[in-house]
Write a structure and sequence with these properties.
heterodimer; A: mainly alpha; ABC transporter involved in vitamin B12 uptake, BtuC; two-stranded antiparallel ribbon; 12 helices; 2 strands; B: 441 residues; alpha/beta; Rossmann fold; 15 helices; globular
Chain lengths: 330, 441
Amino acid sequence: MRIERDVIYIIIVTLFLMVAIPWTMGQISEDIFFEWPFFFEVAIGGLLAGVMYSLVALGFVLIFKASGVFNFAQGAMVLFSALTLVGLNELGMPIWLAIIATLVVMLLLAVVIERVVLRSLVNQEHIILFMATIGITYFLDGFGQTLWGSEVKTLNLGIPSDPGFYFDGKILINDFDLVAALLAGVLVIVLALFFQYTRIGRALRAVADDHQAALSVGIPLKHIWVIVWAVAGIVALVAGIMWGSKLGVQFSLALIALKALPVLILGGFTSVPGAIVGGLIIGAGEKLAEVFIAPLIGGGIEDWFAYMLALAFLVFRPQGLFGEKIIERV
Amino acid sequence: MTIKRLKTGIIAAATISACLAGSAAMAMESQFIGSLVYRTGPYAPGGIPWADGFADYIELLNARDGGINGVKLELEECDTAYNTDKGVECYERLKNKGSTGMPAVMPLSTGITYALLDRVVADKIPLITSGYGRADAADGRVFPYVFVPPATYWGGADIAINYIASQEGGYGNLKGKKIALVYHDSAYGKEPINTLNTLAEQLGFKFFEFPVPHPGLEQKATWLKIGRQIRPDYVLMWGWGVMNATAIKEAAAVGFPRDKFIGVWWSGNDADMVPAGDAAIGYKSLQFNSVGSDFGIHQQIRSELYAKGKGAASSVEGTGEVAYNRGIQSALILTEALRTAMAEFGNRPMTGEQVAWAMDRLNITQERLKEVGADGLFDPIQLSCADHQGKGRARVTQWDGKQWQAISDWIEPNLNMLRAMYEKSAAAYAKEKGITPRDCK
């Protein structure tokens, strides 16, 4: 993959600002506490949180790449997969078997979505497919809770959540965040390779460009859609497992989709590496802003700052950092 | 033949009319109760047990006593999903139901409470907000239709500081201590700030505020500031839903001691502790009701309802949760107000206005609590025309990994200080709305 020169410049400037602004704030305001170990603690915490955001953003990217549709249901899929996993586990299935069974359920879900919803919408306007995913969202939210109940459920994978001290005890990094980021990172890399170097990956990209053209050169659209929704389902399950063990499996899991949106805006809707870099920048950026800027304006800026940061990137890269440049001639 | 037919027709018509009139009279005998609940949506885990507790107590009265003084209770739920617009819709849908309309509304949400403030005055339906809503509605002179027993957020903030003082060996030792508040960045979460600022000024502790944007899924930056930078002596929490468990987990992640972390009653549901797992052990929460299911009232609910398959909860195990017991408490407040109203106006369905009259005179004594099997479960409540809060007491509980354990007696807030604050705020509201406070002498 070739990275454009202006993207590299933007990333370098961003990294510089991420260090310079907190340091400057620390010098000019008594309300801001700045020490290098604390700065790194916040930055690393943000990067690790960012990988978790990437994990959710990835599900959106997969579907968008293959169908040009923003899958509103990705958050609901995270909730549904986690509810199914914990529900099966509570029925007495060992966790490994429950994970396999949930994978099968997500695969079946992909088949059903393709058969019932998508098949009849081939070559329709993207907005119609988008509206269909809103319908899928409400169905999955309701069906998941009807099936498995609305109570909060625990998902304990035995990952320690104690504070870990590194670099002579100067920097605190939570072990759970470290493990979660590692797992998410592995998944992201596998998917990036899958899209870049496999036949299916190429077919997916072709379908994204033009349904009709892809069909005309013999790419089986319905199979591709099933595959991509199944892969998005697997990503949703991994996100559900990681976020579910962090927050408990409950309706609020569906809301983590909100954390992925600024990542998509920043990274671009069509790029797996964009989701990774976007997640890292949003994660670190919002945490640094909350700690080193927020005290001056009353705090609680983390969420909207992420969107502001993403929009600032759009000024320089309207298609997102790694998004495809669309040139339509009139 | 014709005359005979006519006679038969008249008799049949009279019989049918009599039957219809009789059934109408019987229908009139039942007291309609509308219940705004949230069994769906992101906050359902906290809303379901409350709704179950409320429904079970109403059903217990029907099953055991045939209602109140022979007046059967007819409960209808409307699901708000904790949405203000849906809450107002539910209120409008239920307010005129039954023969006398809804006798009181318990919206279970500060947002819905604010949206209903003007409507309930126009409709003459008492608005009962137990442990939420507008704290200054404790001034019954300005808010004749709003009632806030058993406690308010301002009182809760004072009780938390009172408890911390007791842990530190007295109020004098709070000077120079650091106390932080992590709060849901909403009208609800901001409620205790004024009280805590006032107390910080009076007692000399340093007060830090940490707003958490809704829904509170990500709090790492907040907790790095708390745990690694400010390092307060105590942290208070006014959280809601998923924010509570996340905060407890993040507190553990930065090594902040959970026994120095105290939440308000809405940050102390069993459902909040489950996802936090072992990280929640030692965490404390204020409660205005006791926990557990060993009280007489629970035994009656089990034998009258659950043994006969009529309970509202999916399993009998949920019948001792904090939120479940809080649901019973709300139902008890309403039904005791209905009893008080019936004692004055007769044994028939009551109107909202009659129940408001009764709420002004509500007196749930220790003896009455013993009679209903809730001795020790709730604190007695006595209201008056001017005082719509009562003593406002709460106790501190601690999570042991499985359930809440009471670790303090009922703590009374500084009522003199609070009353002055309520009156000042209520007077400002009255001025803004052009309300002439009623005379309660």
